[in-house]
Automatic annotation (TrEMBL):
It comes from the Bacteria. Pfam families: Response_reg. PROSITE patterns: RESPONSE_REGULATORY (PS50110). This is Chemotaxis protein CheY. SMART domains: REC (SM00448).
């Protein structure tokens, strides 16, 4: 069975890019969210194997959402997505429990490498 992934990013274009990379590599995208609040609700509803989470989003940012998701499921696997120059936020995310991070603009092989590593494939 394909690994089930939830994509969280406030930019529809970025969600589409990640979805294309994942689908081409045999992953199942079970849902998408455009902010941290939606991410938490979708996580509870869908229970994905992994979440790709943007850091900078309106309403609730990715780090706050990560912390809430970790309260729901301490074993949740989350990979943070950040733009260049957000190193301090990436460190905060890793300390909050993120498993890895990928930098925008996305490189397909790096996305798949991070996901495979996190899922233990």
């Amino acid at each position: 069975m394909a690994n089930r992934i939830l994509i969280v990013d406030d930019a529809a274009f970025m969600r589409m890019m990640i979805r294309d990379i994942l689908v081409k590599n045999g992953f199942e995208v079970v849902g998408e969210a455009q902010d941290g609040g939606q991410a938490i609700e979708k996580f509870k509803e869908l229970r994905p194997d992994l979440i790709t989470m943007d850091i900078t989003m309106p309403e609730m940012d990715g780090i706050a959402a990560l912390k809430e998701i970790k309260k729901v499921d301490a074993n949740a696997k989350v990979i943070m997505c950040s733009a260049m120059g957000q190193q301090a936020m990436v460190i905060d995310a890793i300390q909050a429990g993120a498993k890895d991070f990928i930098v925008k603009p996305f490189q397909s092989d790096r996305v798949i490498e991070a996901i495979n590593k996190t899922l233990g494939i």
